[in-house]
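Q: Structure tokens for this one, please.
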Amino acid sequence: MKPFYLIALIAPLCFGAWPSQAYAEIFRNRAAFNSASQNLHTVDFESVTPLGLELNHQVDSVFFESIGGMVISTGVNGNMLSGQTVGEITRLTLYLPPGTTAVGCDQFGSPMIVSISNGESVTMNESDGSTFVGFASDQPIQTLTFFLDFPEPTPSALIDNLSFGQRRAGNEPPVPQLLTSNLTGRAIALDSVTKESEPFRVTSSYNLSTDSHTRITLFIVGVLLQPSDLSVVTVTAEDAQQHVYNLPCEATNRVNNLVWMSQVTVRLPDALTGVGDLNVSVSVRGVTSNKAALRVE
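A: Here is the predicted structure, written as tokens:
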């Protein structure tokens, strides 16, 4: 699948309805943040082109919005993102990929108030001795915001080494999270050949298989899958009568150019013909995801 198509598809997604405010742990040390996180992906602005950022406002599926515009600036710490000031107000907002529960970065503009959508915030000052700020929550973090309207002149927000991933719960294995639509709460699933969404049919003439069975692709975060992980992934579906079906897994992998997201492709068995709505879940190494609905006619 083309990466720009999938980015457009997942832009309005989340994992269902979550409380507007949730507890998050704050870190001022990157080593401690790394220990409390997993599946981290880091954006180093050394490799980001100014023109690409200006045109797309997007880097590695993180969307950037600044009230005063943005530039890639060069300083003693190398290239970094600068969210500029306008009218003595600085506000730089980062819209994070679905399923993010840990986010942190180096922040070189002080003072600066840094907050997340879950409600936690910290004020960074030159006197506190730390240029790093990170958050880890048990609920999705949708945005990371840098804000200041004092003192004058108000500094720009200078950030680098943006890291995002999932919170690590002690020694517990990572939990897969099945992507769902923020609008419907239903699973994000696509026909693996036509890229069409539900409802699906068990058999179709528009596929590349010899058995005419439809294959669908599910998208998950929280675990990073490779083709070699196929044997440790299972997918099950439950109908309205609580009958449970196994959906044979045929492929696992990362999503092209979206390294924080994985995909699982399954075959729809004959038993699902005309079954209607199903609740689907994905298990990786015995750890099961949330359940999400999809329809098979």
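A few notes: Residues 1-5, 7-21 have pLDDT under 50 and may be disordered. The chain has two domains: 20-167, 177-296.
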